[in-house]
Write a structure and sequence with these properties.
about 140 residues; mainly alpha; transmembrane; transmembrane helix; membrane
Length: about 140
């Protein structure tokens, strides 16, 4: 059984992996959350890059908790590390689609180009896979 603590820790570790991959892939701009903050703080997204990153980290950790709570509510199980990684992969895809379809287009009014969609999709899938692996490994109870 996965615990809230495993979801929190998995969210932290998956967020670190996701962020490092974004850097490796060449994303040197502020995260989309910086644009979100700038709409309320009335400024340039670059001015809110660190705050946007912190906000993204917080809700990525929360997404780890949603994962460990939501999977059993759907009648699914974190049986083995393989099934947990598969569930994480699906979760990463759901986050990717939700992020592109709702968050970027509806909330932020951004029409992502192909490069942005590729990076966004890749890092969210990696987030889900790492989260699933951490939760499924059972090393954090």
């Amino acid at each position: 059984m996965a615990t809230i603590r495993a979801g929190l820790a998995g969210g932290v570790i998956a967020t670190i992996g996701m962020t490092l991959l974004m850097i490796v892939m060449g994303d040197d701009g502020p995260p989309p959350t910086a644009q979100f903050v700038s709409t309320f703080a009335d400024g340039d997204p670059d001015d809110y890059a660190m705050l946007g990153l912190m906000l993204h980290i917080l809700y990525s950790i929360g997404a780890g908790v949603v994962f460990v709570v939501g999977v059993p509510l759907l009648g699914l199980e974190f049986g083995s590390i393989g099934s947990s990684v598969a569930l994480g992969l699906v979760y990463g895809i759901v986050l990717m689609i939700g992020g592109m379809a709702f968050w970027m287009r509806t909330v932020l009014g951004i029409e992502p180009d192909r490069g942005m969609m590729t990076m966004f999709g890749t890092v969210h899938i990696v987030y889900g896979v790492v989260l699933g692996a951490i939760v499924g490994a059972g090393i954090i109870a």
